[in-house]
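look at this one:
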Amino acid sequence: MSDSKLKTQLRSDLTTAMKARDEVRSSTLRMALTAVTTEEVSGKTSRELSDDDVVLVLTKEAKKRREAVTAYQEVGRGDLADRETAELAVLSDYLPAQLEAAELDAIITAAITESGADGPRGMGSVMKIVQPKVAGRADGAAVAAEVKKRLIG
C-alpha cells in the first residue's frame, strides 16, 4: 500500500522546513510523523493509515497542545505556552477547518431529532450520529458537553 497523501505532505513539508532551518516547524512535523508511525505499529499488526486516520492522530496531538497551553499559562510559564501555541499553529495547517458554533448547533439539533432522544439516556445515540460528522473539526469534549446540555435542558 502507498502512503496517505497527508502523510506524504507532512514528510515533504518536513524536508522544506529543515532546509529553511525552521526549528519549530521541523520539530513539530517530526513529532507528528512519529505519532503517525506509532499509531501505524500499535495493535497486533502494523497497518498503513488513511488520510482520515492521520487527521485523527493530528487532532489528538493538537488537543495535547491546547491542554498544555492552558496548563502552562495557569502556572505562569508563558515561554512554554508560547512554544505549544506555535506547535499548535503548525498542526492546524493540516487539520480541517473547525466548525462554527452555528454549524455545530445545526448538526446537534439534527442528530437529536434523528435519534429521537429526549433525555440524558439518549446521549449515546446522539453522539453516534454527531461524532462522524464533526471528527477533527470540533473538540469532542465540547461537543459532548453541548449535547448533554441540550438533552438535560
